[in-house]
Each structure stands twice: as structure tokens, then as C-alpha cells.
Design brief:
The protein is built from 16 helices and 23 strands. With 500 residues, the protein is an alpha/beta fold. The chain is globular, with a radius of gyration of 25 Å. It has two domains: 269 residues, Aldehyde Dehydrogenase, Chain A, domain 1 (3-Layer(aba) Sandwich); 182 residues, Aldehyde Dehydrogenase, Chain A, domain 2. A seven-stranded mixed sheet has the order 15-16-17-14-13-19-20, sandwiched between helices. The protein has a six-stranded mixed sheet with strand order 10-9-8-11-12-22, with helices on both faces. Strands 1-5-4 form a three-stranded mixed sheet, with helices on one face. Helix 2 crosses helix 7, helix 3 packs across helix 4 and helix 10 crosses helix 11.
């Protein structure tokens, strides 16, 4: 169902104010816990996208000349406003995404860390200087903003991922266009209001709602200089190839199939707690969720038993219910896709230990937690990114077999190892071909002063997101070679410049 006169309409945010859509196209926004449409969101046309980019280009030319002290003050005000509105942001995330409020609050907190990191912009944007590289010649570097940045963000973290991008992009002197997911667009609008209240100039931060038409318009627009993307691998590949073909700097983070390797010497109870938390938190709708447990040797049977015994304790319910530990999936279509993997598991040769899809709810897009044993590569359960509360168990005889399994997977976002052996952990850290590694940590999301990014099909381009890598992505180094001769000095020299 699309449209309806009894639901709220979500507009764009352009040039410091709400701007109605003119394309005539809208998409429905649902409350996943109730399964009903509550809002519509405007979907931008290519012409509307052009208007937004022109506004951002004009704002960028002024914002890049702003003093670093002003940027710092404005970012600090934004930080304080996010703190003051953190409960409101979390509530909006829960209402439209479905995750429980405490989980949404954690998302806001991790995004806030990126704003705090960006408040150190004067330190981050220091260049370098070398004097007397040749007689009377000095060289220095200036980190120059790229211009206009487009951020295309996913539904599963509608506050955190935009803050990953926009905090550093704005700190570095760029204008930013946020194209959020149309499934949960309201948090982006509140962020826009907070950015405006913090004192950023009109047009420096814009929100453009839309679907593939808006995305492709941004990727092809000559006024967009850089694109940051987080989403599925097929779309990440499209964004990277299209954006770079149009001369843009692109970082595109794709999908994942995160493994948790459990060694025979691991604490089984601790590993089971971690597996349940990392697999079923946020209903598995995390790019860093654990979707495969690799049980090595004799740990397999006790580990499967320990995980299955805990699943019954996971309370599934509306995100705004304090008793709920896991909320619904974001849409009915996604719920049906996720449960299809459980329904087909036995036919693929796997063993269904816990079937969460068999549970029923009177309303909403809910499903329970599922645990599938005897999973093998080649099964849809293993090969696909399910993005739901379905945990597969692969049994491997040795550590070497487990490492080979993980390294053979086309994704390389995150991986975890549970062991008591420091030598095994050190070897795992060195041999594994995955971008983010946890040792007895199931979801190794780096803090804001490091950088987030996987390897292989989990990242297109060579730049991870946020932290120091984010600053490098949102700036271009400009190298200046200068000489100030005495007024009487003048000579013609056709030789190649030398430093000797």
C-alpha cells in the first residue's frame, strides 16, 4: 500500500528547511511492530536531485573557507544537541526500523563517538612543511576539502551510519547530501534539524529521499565529488563502478558473512552467550552480525547445545517494550525472505535445531531466532547474506580447516575467534583475510578513532569509513612549492628542477 490521507508525509531537507517533493512519487513507511503504514516519504526525481546538488555546491564554496575554530564550535554544538535528543532519535529508529530502544540508543551512542572525533578537526587537518628542499625553496601540503559529498546509507543504522560519514565530511569543509533508506527516513530529518540548530550554514547539510532514480542521479551528477555508501554487495558494486566511471571518489561498503570460530579450549558458556547476542541482536539486521559459528573439533556438540538452550530466553516483541530483547524485521517482504532459508534448510541437508520461523504473531513483521546445524558451503544458508536472526553452525575438524573456510568466503567484513590460547589467537590474527577481527569479541566494530571497513566483496575501493581514513577520503592533498627570491635575482634555466 502506498499513500493514504491519514498518514504523515516526510519531505526533503534542502538549503536549511523542509522542502516538499515535486516528483509525485512516494513510498510507504511502516511501523514493523504493528505491520501498518504510518507515513509516506517523498521520492526524488533526477530534476529534484539536480536542485539539491546545486544548492550543496554553492554552500560548499563558502563552508570550505570557514575557520577551523568555527567548524569546531559548530561540531561541539551538534554533539551537545545529539546528546540532548538521543532518546528522541532512538525512539524514531525503533519506530521505523523495529530494533529495541536500548539497541537504538547504542546506535546513537556509537554515532556520537564519530562527532566527538570530528571535533578534533584542527589536529586532523594539519598539513606538513619542509623548508630548504632546494636553495630558498620550501614545500608544504594543504588538506583541501573534496567539495560535495553524497552519503547513501542503509536502513539498519539510520543514525549511526550517516554520522559515520557526515561528521568528518562537514569537519573537513565539505557540503553533504544524505540519501537515507526510504524504509526509515525520519531520523535523518531530526538530524537535519539538529545540524541547522547547531549553526551550520544553509545548504551545507541536505537530506534527499529517494530510490534508484535519486541514487543514479547523484552518481552521475558532475557537481558531486565523492560518494560514501553502505549497503548490499550488488548495490555497492554498482555504486562504485558507476561513481568512479563518472570521475568521483567512491568508498562503497558491501555485505558480509561473518564467522565466529570457536576452539575446543574456549569457554563454552561465554562463547554461547556471545553467539546468541551477536547473531540475534537487532534481529540479525547488522552487517557485523555473526551468521556462522565455526565449531572446531570436540566443541561442536556442547556449543550447539549451549546456544540452543539460550534461545528460549530471548524475548521477541515490540521495540518500545522494555521487556523485549529482539524486535521485528523491517518489512514483511524481508521477513518472508529470511524465513525461507529456515524452511529450506532440511532440503539442503542441514539440521534445524531451533525453528524460530514456526512461531506466529498476530501483527507485525516478527520471526523468532533460528539455529541450523550441519551447514556447509554450497548451501544457500551458508552462501547468502541472510540478514536476519538465523545462525548456522559449520563443523570443522581443525584450526587450519576453520581458517581456510573463512578465507575462502567471498566476504571479508568481520570475524571472531574464541580461545584461551594466545598463540592460536596471534596466528589467527595474522592469517585471516578479513578486515575487522575480534579475539573473544563477537562484534569487532572499531572505535571512532580507528576506521571501519572489510576486505574482498565487503569493500569496493581502497578507503574504509570514518576515523583517520574518513578524513583522508574527504580531503585532497595539495602540495605547494614556493620560492621567494631577492628582487635582484633573475635567470632563465631550461633544465629540470633539481633539489641539489
Amino acid at each position: 500500500m502506498v499513500g493514504g490521507g491519514d498518514v504523515d508525509s516526510i519531505e526533503h531537507w534542502v538549503g536549511g528547511r523542509r522542502t516538499p517533493g515535486t516528483s509525485g512519487r512516494v513510498a510507504p513507511v511502516f511501523d514493523p511492530a504493528l505491520g501498518v503504514q504510518t507515513k509516506t516519504v517523498a521520492l526524488a526525481s533526477a530534476a529534484e536531485t539536480d536542485d539539491v546538488v546545486r544548492c550543496a555546491v554553492d554552500a560548499a564554496s563558502r563552508w570550505q573557507q570557514s575557520p577551523l575554530g568555527r567548524r569546531t564550535d559548530t561540531l561541539f554544538r551538534l554533539r551537545e544537541l545529539i546528546v540532548a535528543h538521543r532518546e528522541e532519535l532512538a525512539a524514531l529508529v525503533s519506530q521505523e526500523h523495529g530494533k529495541v530502544v536500548t539497541d537504538a540508543a547504542g546506535e546513537v551512542a556509537r554515532g556520537l563517538e564519530c562527532v566527538e572525533f570530528a571535533c578534533g578537526v584542527p589536529q586532523m587537518l594539519k598539513g606538513s612543511h619542509s623548508s630548504e628542499v632546494s636553495t630558498g625553496v620550501d614545500v608544504h601540503t594543504v588538506l583541501h576539502p573534496v567539495g560535495v559529498v553524497a552519503g547513501i546509507t542503509p536502513f539498519n543504522f539510520p543514525v549511526m551510519v550517516p554520522l559515520w560519514m557526515m561528521a568528518n565530511a562537514l569537519a573537513c569543509g565539505n557540503a553533504f547530501i544524505l540519501k537515507p533508506s526510504e524504509k526509515d527516513p525520519s531520523p535523518s530529518m531530526l538530524l537535519a534539524e539538529l545540524v541547522q540548530e547547531a549553526g551550520f550554514p544553509d545548504g551545507v547539510f541536505n537530506v534527499l529521499h529517494g530510490d534508484v532514480e535519486a541514487v543514479d542521479a547523484l552518481l552521475g551528477h558532475p557537481g558531486v565529488d565523492a560518494v560514501s555508501f553502505v549497503g548490499s554487495t550488488p548495490v555497492a558494486r554498482h555504486v562504485y563502478e558507476t561513481g568512479t566511471r563518472n570521475g568521483k571518489r567512491v568508498q562503497a561498503l558491501g555485505g558480509a558473512k561473518n564467522h565466529m570460530v570457536v576452539m575446543p579450549d574456549a569457554d563454552v558458556d561465554a562463547a554461547a552467550d556471545a553467539a546468541v547476542s551477536a547473531a540475534y541482536g537487532s534481529a540479525g539486521e547488522r552487517c557485523m552480525a555473526i551468521s556462522v559459528v565455526v565449531a572446531v573439533g570436540s566443541v561442536a556438540d556442547p556449543l550447539v547445545e549451549a546456544i540452543s538452550s539460550r534461545i528460549g530466553d530471548v524475548v521477541v516483541g515490540p521495540g518500545n517494550d522494555p521487556a523485549s530483547m529482539m524486535g521485528p524485521l523491517v518489512t514483511a517482504e524481508h521477513r518472508d525472505r529470511v524465513t525461507s532459508y529456515v524452511h529450506g534448510a532440511a532440503e539442503e541437508g542441514a539440521r534445524v535445531v531451533v525453528d524460530g520461523s514456526s512461531q506466529s504473531w498476530s501483527q507485525g513483521f516478527f520471526t523468532g531466532c533460528s539455529l541450523i546445524d550441519e551447514v556447509k558451503p554450497g548451501m544457500r544458508l551458508y552462501d547468502d547474506e541472510i540478514f536476519g536472526p538465523v545462525l548456522g553452525v559449520v563443523r570443522m575438524p581443525t584450526f587450519d580447516d576453520a581458517v581456510a573456510l573463512v578465507n575462502a568466503n567471498p566476504y571479508g567484513n568481520g570475524v571472531a575467534l574464541f580461545t584461551r590460547d594466545g598463540g592460536t589467537a596471534r596466528r589467527f590474527e595474522r592469517e585471516i583475510t578479513v578486515g575487522m577481527v575480534g579475539i573473544n569479541v563477537p562484534i569487532p566494530v572499531p572505535v571512532a578513532f580507528y576506521s571501519f571497513g572489510g576486505w574482498k566483496a565487503s569493500l569496493f575501493g581502497d578507503s574504509p569509513i570514518y576515523g583517520p581514513e574518513g578524513v583522508r577520503f574527504y580531503t585532497r592533498p595539495k602540495v605547494v612549492t614556493s620560492r621567494w627570491p631577492e628582487p635582484t635575482e633573475s635567470a632563465i634555466d631550461l633544465g629540470f628542477p633539481s633539489t641539489r
